[in-house]
């Protein structure tokens, strides 16, 4: 058995390719998972010891012979797809393509121990000492002058006891393993979906099987869901949805889902600064994080959504390669990718429109940039929803789709008109009071008598309630007069039936104003009339106030 192995590449080229190209432990683990998948492994076991800065990754895949180890694994740039091989023996689509992804494995620790065994053969492998490799590169040695160290008998014997598989041990990981085990489990569950969907491929981290339960926090925070072309994903069955999932269809072979959370904080991965995004997968492999950056909408919904989109046609198995050398992105100006982005942009536009309606139906703030309702109606609905939530803080009194829920939804629609209308009344009448005070106008005997009547009524009601505190901020007579009396001091029509004036509008305005002020739900024709008269009042009021500022 040949136990002396070398790199089959110029060491300077190896360095220029970027031995530090992969920046975090998740990328390294991802490369190992991809290799195990391509090797038809059924299981991969990841052992992480953060305290001792140690990691081991073992699988039960096909393993390597001595020739495979030298001519394939250590040959930087070797592709499993040569000679038209695009799938494994188990008919899995190969994830590996360029043959340089192994740099993630070979450069992330001070020492990397690799042992592998094929069925019926002895274990083979070697040790990469990156400090020695750095010196060899500095000394400008060629690949034949740098030989891998020999594996320990202990590791070879342990490997020989197995039928087949590969084991990689990382000793003294560069910069340490800062991610928590919990985060690593969540990241694997998120970004290696094929491990959850394919029952014949299982990933274990420190003895625990990776499954959908790793994403429970995210599932519990999810509010709405859109499925694209009938995606099947066990994670989606765990979601705590507040509305039935929406279905979107595309003529392209796109599958996936987009989900939205209740609050923007819901997309953050707990215990980290990272957040989940809408990501693109090709043949099960994460290829592009946050594809929304290719579709800038600047809409608030972007802060609430996450998802996974699968489009395997970006890797058809031919010689065309649209993936970056780092394997962490896609060349964005490639026609196939641009076609995909255009199609997904259309789908996401539907999601934006749906999201606003769904949010408002659930009593949450929607998208302020959506013009389906007026800004003032939207604000009114938001105030209604906020008030309702305050009412239910102590005890939830609304059963979803129950009778009370139906009442509330009906009132929510009416609130879009009534709340702004009350606000208009409040503003206009109080501005008139300030104007009268400013002009030092004297109230008529009729107005004084009207004010005294309401003062007396208020005192009677206070007596019945057995209260002695002041209710109104002032006992000035004007605070007891409505628009009809107030307008007569300022802009009284000579002919109340014909002449346009504030007082005439006030007469038309009063009956509907009183109904709104008494929290009644009013008819459509009453809404129309109130809107017309308020526009007249607003125009004359603005003119009066402009004169004050001169």
Please supply descriptive tags for the structure shown above.
Heat Shock Protein 90; 16 helices; alpha+beta; 7-stranded mixed beta sheet; 550 residues; 41% helix
Query: Main sheet, how many strands, which sense, barrel?
Result: 7 strands, mixed
How many beta-strand runs? 13
* Number of DSSP helical runs: 16
What's the overall geometry? elongated
Structural class: alpha+beta
Binned strand content = 5-15%
Secondary-structure element order, as H and E?
HHEEHHEEHHEHHEEHEEEEEEHHHHHHH
Level-2 CATH architecture of the largest domain? 2-Layer Sandwich
Q: Number of domains in the coordinates?
A: 3
Q: Would you give the CATH topology of the largest domain?
A: Heat Shock Protein 90
- The strand order across the widest sheet is 4-3-5-2-1-6-7
In the predicted model, the low-confidence regions spanning at least 5 consecutive residues are: none
Roughly how many Å is the radius of gyration? 36 Å
């Amino acid at each position: 058995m040949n136990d002396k192995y070398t790199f089959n590449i110029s060491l300077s080229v190896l360095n220029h390719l970027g031995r530090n190209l992969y920046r975090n432990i998740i990328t390294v683990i991802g490369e190992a998972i991809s290799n195990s998948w391509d090797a038809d492994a059924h299981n991969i076991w990841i052992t992480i010891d953060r305290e001792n800065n140690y990691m081991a990754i073992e699988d039960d895949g096909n393993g390597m012979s001595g020739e495979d180890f030298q001519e394939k694994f250590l040959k930087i740039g070797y592709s499993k797809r040569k000679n038209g091989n695009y799938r494994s023996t188990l008919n899995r689509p190969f994830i590996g393509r360029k043959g340089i992804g192994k740099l993630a494995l070979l450069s992330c620790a001070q020492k990397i121990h690799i042992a592998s065994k094929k069925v019926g053969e002895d274990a083979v492998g070697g040790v990469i000492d990156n400090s020695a490799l750095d010196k060899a590169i500095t000394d400008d040695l060629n690949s034949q002058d740098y030989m891998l160290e020999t594996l320990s008998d202990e590791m070879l014997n342990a490997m020989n006891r197995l039928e087949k598989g590969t084991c990689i041990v990382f000793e003294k990981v560069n910069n340490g393993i800062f991610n928590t085990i919990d985060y690593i489990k969540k990241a694997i569950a998120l970004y290696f979906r094929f491990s959850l969907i394919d029952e014949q491929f299982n990933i274990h981290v420190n003895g625990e099987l990776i499954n959908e339960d790793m994403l429970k926090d995210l599932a519990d925070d999810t509010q709405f869901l859109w499925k694209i072309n009938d995606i099947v994903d066990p994670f989606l069955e765990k979601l705590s949805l507040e509305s039935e999932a929406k279905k979107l269809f595309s003529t392209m072979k796109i599958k996936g889902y987009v989900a939205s959370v209740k609050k923007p904080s819901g997309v953050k991965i707990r215990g980290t600064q990272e957040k989940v995004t809408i990501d693109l997968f090709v043949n099960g492999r994460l290829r592009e994080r946050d594809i929304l950056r290719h579709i800038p909408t600047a809409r608030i919904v972007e802060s609430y959504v996450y998802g996974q989109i699968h489009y395997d046609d970006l890797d058809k198995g031919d010689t065309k390669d649209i993936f970056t050398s780092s394997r962490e992105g896609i060349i964005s100006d490639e026609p196939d990718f641009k076609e995909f982005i255009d199609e997904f942009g259309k789908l996401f536009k539907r999601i934006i429109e749906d999201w606003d309606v769904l949010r408002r139906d659930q009593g949450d703030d929607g998208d302020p940039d959506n013009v389906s309702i007026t800004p003032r109606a939207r604000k009114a609905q938001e105030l209604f929803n906020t008030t309702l939530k305050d009412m239910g803080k102590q005890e939830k009194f609304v059963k979803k789709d129950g009778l009370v829920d139906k009442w509330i939804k009906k009132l929510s629609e009416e609130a879009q008109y009534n709340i702004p209308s009350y606000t208009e009344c409040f503003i206009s009448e109080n501005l008139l009071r300030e104007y009268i005070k400013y002009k030092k106008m004297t109230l008529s005997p009729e107005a004084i008598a009207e004010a005294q009547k309401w003062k007396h009524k208020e005192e009677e009601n206070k007596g019945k309630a057995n209260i002695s505190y002041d209710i109104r901020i002032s006992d000035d007579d004007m605070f007891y007069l409505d628009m009809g009396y107030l307008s007569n001091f300022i802009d009284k029509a000579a002919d109340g039936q014909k002449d346009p004036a504030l007082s005439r509008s006030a007469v038309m305005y009063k009956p509907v104003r009183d109904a709104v002020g008494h929290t009644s739900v009013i008819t459509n024709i009453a809404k129309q009339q109130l809107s017309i008269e308020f526009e007249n009042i607003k125009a004359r009021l603005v003119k009066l106030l402009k004169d004050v500022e001169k």
